[in-house]
Amino acid sequence: MGFFDRIGNLWNGFWGLWISGKESKNPEAVYEAAIDERIKKHRDLKKAVSGIVYLRNKISTELETKERELKEVNGQLPVAIESGDDDVAIVLLTKKNELEKALEQLKVDSEKVTAQANDAKDSLVAFQGEIEKLKRERDEMLAKKATAEARIQIQETLDGLSTDADIKALENVREHIHKMQAEADIGTEMKADSLDSRLAKVKAKAQDATAKSQLDELKKQMAARNAAAEGAVKKTM
Length: 237
Description:
Blueprint: H1 3-25, H2 27-82, H3 86-159, H4 165-192, H5 195-236
Helix pairs in contact: 2-3
């Protein structure tokens, strides 16, 4: 292999890779091109099938015509023989032989062309089915592509969250709020341990003690009154 041949092969390889890359980036265009190509072939196949069907119909019509002519000849031949017209009878016999030979060939041709027409029609229907199947495949594959792209985009977004500026800002805000909350908690704790707080607690206890002694005194007074009332009742009795 010469130098220029190697260069040519290398260029073809790069060209093939470039085409392959373009196709993978635009699968919809590839499917549309494949579908359009099949539709074009289906159109050409349909024309070919129509030609076979036309030939089948033509042979069928010719076959009917020959059968009708043979029937007429078979009806005329006895009349010519009975009338003693040998010349006419010979002509009719010759025509009969020709018609029978032509009919035999037409029947063979009709069977072949009819079989070809049926096969061609089946192929046409099958080819149309392949086109519809390819269309369904296109829709399914493009839907899968869209879903995969969405999943990849979501995954890339999730993977990039830790380095996003807004996420860092949120983390800073959370940390600041937690620090402020800690400062507030420390202020509350220090206030609880302050002198004023302890003095307030002593005053509250003193007030509770005073109220309790007052309650005990009231209970004693009420008990004394109740006892005096009971003694007075006994004396009157």
